[in-house]
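# step 3/5: fold
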Amino acid sequence: MSLLSAVFYFAFFLFLYATAARVVRYAKMPPHLRWEIYPAVAERGASEGSYLEQQEWWNKPCHTSRLAELRFQATEMFLFHRCYVNNRGIWRFTLPFHWGLYLLTGWLLIQFACSGAGFFLETLGRTAIFVDRAALLTRPIGIAGLVLAAYGCTGLVLKRLTDRSLRSTTSRSDFFGLFLILGILFCWLLSWGLFDRSFAGATRYVRELAEFAPLFGVNPFMISGTVLFSVFLAYMPFTYMAHAFAKYFIFHKVVWQDAPMVPGSETERRIEQLLREPVGWSASHINKGASWSKTVSSPPQ
């Protein structure tokens, strides 16, 4: 294995570990206070409010729709509908940027899958020519993803640099993340435009990377892009860009969470556990150090 491959795999496994640790931390966080946000997407017939507004709601069943949830999430993930409604100037670049990332990710996964399939067939003594052809046929996906992502990322950077309202709310880490992604994309664009117009070299390079094979004939822009991409993989889980993995919890555990606390439920168990935690701050109406259950049920000493 080459040094470049070792750097990439170190960053890749760090990315997996840090992302998994963050997801576990999200899953273990205390229950969130309910948001009064309507309409409740998951509830059937909730266009005017929640079932909790009905009289004696505890005696009535709540009908939810997973299809409605998936439809809403798909609209946000692939069309960025709320961004379109609230900030169309950003949406013009956010949409192609994310679609480009989706296509690039899909192309990379296809190459890794083809490598695995080819290795499996070779161990069985069968030819893997059709797998190699399938990998090459997906080149337009990679090229389209590269162009779309570069266009969208460039637009986002320029928008944040020239729009006063956006620039004042964009932190240095935001700019660093965008410039890092832009550097990766432009390195790979230069590699494609100057050294690998057929994109066959990029396909072969990813296949060799997936198979832990020695890397031959790799141009400097591809190497630079891979190094920057490795930095990005190691950096991403520790930044705001990890919101991609937090959206499930934001929607399902915060925005849409309206399940009542009934006796013997998991929600009741978690709330009781939290009420036994000590209070860590003090005020005239708070007994510092006492449990929350004692604090809310007795006057301060």
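# step 4/5: annotate
The chain has a mean pLDDT of 85.
# step 5/5: archive (pending)
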